[in-house]
């Protein structure tokens, strides 16, 4: 019981940090292109920013350890799917643009500095890490719910007849 609460808190904290990193780097990029006319071409970055905002909100709300946070596993799975979609569209953009080299060449990944390719690859990496954390969180929530359903069934069906 305490291990699932601890694992849930650690995962929620990691989800919060990863989403904040993606939102910060991606927001900085969106701010630099805000005065250009290429908004429709940048829809994938806007989508990633929205997913990061939703993930930050729900990670903050569900960060506190209480048993109700485990029953939200369908929403965790949905947010994980959104993160995987964001990861996919960002990787596709990197393949189409071809400016930053191979997708999984992590030599220039950076959060700070002036390297736009390094920052872009950092957004891709943290989007993937966030998707994995949300997926693991949904699996833990599903296991917790199924375990508690089984305990409830055993308790209600086998009562003493005395």
Automatic annotation (TrEMBL):
Keywords: Membrane, Transmembrane, Transmembrane helix. GO terms for cellular component: membrane. The chain crosses the membrane at residues 7-25, 45-65, 77-104, 124-145. It is a multi-pass membrane protein. InterPro entries: Marvel. It is found in: Membrane. Residues 8-139 form the MARVEL domain. This is MARVEL domain-containing protein.
